[in-house]
């Protein structure tokens, strides 16, 4: 009986009819001829209510529902969730579906309405975009069924409690992987760069194309074919590519729901996958006030799984980053010259200069690329016209910090250290572009 009461809900139409009957009975005290009409309507109402109750409750399993959720969700991406519905009633029903999604999404208005004919099936689909890694718990799926009479609703509750892990953006990684396999990286914004570097391993003789190095022209083959022919060399492979991720407090700053750390993690996952596809070795180092986890560069099967599992557990440590510890660690463990992509952030030129000695020492042994973030809020403020004295003051301060970001890039370049300043949402594309550019120039 308790289960019956918990599943029974009254509709707005029922309350409207009850109010109308009450008003009619009140008017019957003033106009006695209305009493008979009110009693007849009340009888009809009771019969309709009982009929509605019988229609909804005589079939114990009138509705079947199943939520389909991926085994893992991709952080920062739109993940598809679907709800499968079957109508076992002998009449068309109106459905309201409320899914108890994890509290991290802070959504309390996830309501879907639909109609189902007898024996009909339907799939309701929606998207969820998580912004934090970790474990998310789904609750029950509540389906409220209303008959054609529309006086009451019956709730079917399908307890599908399920915990789903949110991993770094593997959907983005797969998208870039498919583009790389089909040589369509330009569709995602990655620049197509002609390879101007070369190794000493000969591959083939081919026709000259504008942009080829004239020093590779094969004059004998040119004379035989009466057309410019060049020697093509195999691309150098199996270089070490390390992603160095700063987990200090500067990486906690949020942009569009994701922290800078999560942007760096997503970019690292994509870049590592592209590097392995290009026959390079991908590795990983995390650090903050001390060096965290180190995954030595490899290209064997299973390396991406290790990288994904390692990145899943990374959290901001909210402390000042120790770059001296990073330099000592690199000096100790990275014996071969490697490409180091260091994800961090600097808001002022002074903060960068404090770490410059360590960057210069690392750059002596490796090709170091420092990747830090453009403050998109400052850019939006600069593009907005200033009308009051206060707005002019704010805009002047914003211009100072915006200028310092670009000054950091120029100062690092003076010491032969490459830097990449990018908006958080463009980090992955910019990083992959930089890697492909360096690889095409034979710098790694």
From TrEMBL:
The keyword Transmembrane helix applies. The chain crosses the membrane at residues 12-31, 37-57. Keywords: Membrane, Transmembrane, Transmembrane helix. Residues 204-369 form the DUF58 domain. This is DUF58 domain-containing protein. It comes from Arcicella rigui. The lineage of its organism: Bacteria, Pseudomonadati, Bacteroidota, Cytophagia, Cytophagales.
């Amino acid at each position: 009986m308790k289960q019956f009461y918990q599943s029974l809900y009254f509709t707005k139409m029922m309350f409207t009819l009850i109010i109308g009957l009450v008003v009619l009975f009140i008017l019957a005290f003033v106009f006695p001829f209305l009493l008979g009409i009110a009693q007849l309507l009340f009888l009809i109402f009771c019969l309709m209510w009982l009929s509605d109750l019988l229609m909804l409750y005589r079939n114990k399993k009138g509705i079947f529902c199943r939520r389909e959720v991926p085994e893992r969700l991709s952080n920062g991406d739109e993940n598809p969730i679907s709800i499968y519905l079957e109508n076992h009633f002998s009449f068309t029903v109106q459905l309201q579906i409320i899914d108890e999604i994890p509290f991290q999404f802070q959504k309390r208005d996830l309501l879907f309405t639909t109609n189902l004919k007898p024996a009909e099936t339907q799939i309701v689909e929606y998207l969820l975009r998580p912004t934090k890694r970790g474990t998310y718990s789904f609750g029950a799926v509540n389906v409220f069924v209303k008959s054609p009479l529309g006086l009451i609703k019956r709730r079917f509750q399908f307890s599908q409690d399920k915990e789903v892990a949110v991993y770094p953006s593997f959907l983005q990684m797969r998208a870039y992987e498919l583009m790389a396999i089909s040589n369509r990286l330009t569709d995602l914004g990655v620049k197509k760069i002609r390879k101007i570097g070369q190794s000493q391993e000969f591959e083939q003789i081919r026709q000259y194309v504008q942009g080829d190095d004239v020093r590779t022209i094969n004059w004998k083959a040119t004379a035989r074919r009466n057309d410019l022919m060049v020697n093509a060399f195999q691309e150098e492979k199996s270089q070490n590519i390390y992603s160095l991720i700063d987990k200090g407090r500067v990486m906690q700053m949020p942009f569009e729901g994701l922290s800078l750390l999560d942007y760096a993690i997503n970019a690292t996952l994509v870049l590592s996958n592209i590097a392995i596809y290009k026959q390079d070795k991908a590795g990983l180092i995390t650090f903050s006030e001390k060096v965290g986890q180190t995954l030595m560069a490899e290209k064997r099967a299973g390396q991406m799984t290790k990288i994904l599992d390692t990145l899943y557990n990374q959290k901001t440590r909210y402390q000042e980053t120790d770059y001296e510890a990073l330099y000592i660690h690199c000096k100790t463990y990275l014996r071969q010259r490697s490409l180091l992509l260091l994800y961090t952030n600097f808001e002022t030129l002074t903060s960068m200069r404090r770490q410059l000695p360590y960057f210069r020492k690392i750059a002596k042994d490796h090709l170091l690329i420092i990747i830090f973030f453009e403050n998109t809020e400052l850019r939006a403020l600069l593009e907005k016209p200033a009308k009051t004295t206060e707005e002019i003051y704010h805009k002047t301060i914003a211009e100072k910090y915006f200028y310092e970001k670009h000054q950091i890039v120029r100062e690092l370049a003076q010491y032969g250290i490459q830097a990449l300043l990018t908006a958080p949402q463009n980090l992955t594309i910019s990083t992959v572009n930089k890697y492909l550019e360096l690889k095409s120039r034979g710098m790694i």
